[in-house]
Amino acid sequence: MNNAITKIGVFTSGGDAPGMNAAIRAVVRASIYYKKEVFGIMRGYEGMIDGDIVKLGARSVGNILQRGGTILKSARSQEFRAPEGRKKAFDQLKKHGIDALIAIGGDGSFAGLHVFFEEYHLPSVCIPGTIDNDIPGTDFTIGYDTATNTAVEAIDKIRDTALSHNRLFFVEVMGRNSGYIAINSGIAGGAGAIIIPEDHMTFEALYAILKPGEETAKKSNVVVVAEGSKIGGAIELARKVAERSSYFDIKVTILGHLQRGGSPTYFDRVLASKLGVAAVEGLLHGKQDVMVGVLDNKISYTPFETVRSGTHAINEEDLRIAKILSI
Ligand code: ATP
């Protein structure tokens, strides 16, 4: 046990994700369980620079487990990218006696903490919190399960209207450059086609899937498109199909930010709780400059360098299954 650590600072950074609050709660309660003081740093690196830092107790994180968003707020900070900004942040942490950090966020937030660690050597552990599931070193990121469930619920609703009006819908889901939300919401929502950046499907191949509808009088269908699609987003693909054929009555829905909010699923709450406790225990056992994750259902700590140089590839098997089921 690292008894040199006495005060742990926790913050959320980058895009918010459902389950971040459950992770904050777990970090706070685990810190107190191990008799450490814990401080919430507001608005990510912005609040660190401004000294917007509050002491947290076990009760200050009551009734947040089930809430979306983040009580610590999140922000993106230009100032922290410069050495002068990071110096200000370090001075504020020193003022509060904070001697270890836990960041909940995405790869950008981890990159920031890594630079900070190299300069100031504060033991730090990152917890992956992003709906995109695009971080290597963990099978799941906090928020991904909830966001995918939200997308599935939306696709189910869109399917009702697609069927009633014989319409072809293009539904665009989030995920940045990752197709995780798209492939799994597409499988769960019974999509006729799924377009993800990791696949090499061309527009011609997509059109070949839709075209038989003209012969079989199948007008209604749902195509799920990942926002990182390399052959165009939902609007562009819809336009291209409309240019080819006047047979389809085409509509587009972009789900956007509604995928980021809402109450976390049981899965995200449990994942966030486990990772929060493991982040504190990792720090107290001497881990530093690592990300805590879950691999094959076991807690694992991955050095930041490995996280940075890797990718979280889509399971090829999911892609194969999606293609079989969409005939
Ligand atoms: P999401 O995946 O949801 O976008 P993220 O954590 O990747 O979340 P970013 O906006 O990329 O979000 O990063 C959050 C913040 O981390 C940035 O606003 C910046 O303050 C800090 N940061 C990112 N990269 C660096 C870097 N190379 N050096 C210093 N700070 C950085």
Keywords:
single chain; 327 residues; alpha/beta; Rossmann fold; 2 domains; seven-stranded mixed beta sheet; four-stranded parallel beta sheet; 42% helix; binds adenosine-5'-triphosphate
How would you concisely characterize the structure shown here?
The chain has two domains: 7-143 and 264-309, 3-Layer(aba) Sandwich (Rossmann fold); 144-260, Rossmann fold (3-Layer(aba) Sandwich). It contains twelve helices and eleven strands. It has helices at 20-33, 44-50, 83-95, 107-120, 144-165, 180-188, 203-210, 212-216, 234-244, 266-284, 304-309, 316-325; strands at 7-12, 37-41, 53-56, 100-105, 124-128, 167-173, 193-195, 221-226, 249-254, 290-295, 298-303.
Strand content: 15-25%
Q: What's the N-to-C terminus distance?
A: 56 Å
Bulk shape: elongated
- Can you name the CATH architecture of the largest domain? 3-Layer(aba) Sandwich
SSE order: EHEHEHEHEHEHEHHEHEHEEHH
Task: Outline the biggest β-sheet.
Answer: 7 strands, mixed
Total strands: the figure is 11
Structural overview:
The structure is a single chain. By secondary structure, the chain is α/β, with parallel strands linked by helices. The protein has 2 domains: 7-143 and 264-309, Rossmann fold, CATH 3.40.50.450; 144-260, Rossmann fold. The chain is 42% helix and 18% strand. It is built from 12 helices and 11 strands. It has helices at 20-33, 44-50, 83-95, 107-120, 144-165, 180-188, 203-210, 212-216, 234-244, 266-284, 304-309, 316-325; strands spanning 7-12, 37-41, 53-56, 100-105, 124-128, 167-173, 193-195, 221-226, 249-254, 290-295, 298-303. The strands form 2 sheets. The protein has a 7-stranded mixed beta sheet with strand order 3-2-1-4-5-10-11, with helices on both faces. A 4-stranded parallel beta sheet has the order 7-8-6-9, sandwiched between helices. Strand 10 and strand 11 form a beta hairpin. Helix 2 (44-50) crosses helix 3 (83-95), helix 5 (144-165) packs across helix 6 (180-188) and helix 6 (180-188) packs parallel to helix 12. The longest helix has 22 residues, at 144-165. The mean pLDDT is 95. Bound molecules: adenosine-5'-triphosphate. Adenosine-5'-triphosphate is lined by residues 13-15, 45, 76-77, 80-81, 105-109, 111-112, 115, 130, 132.
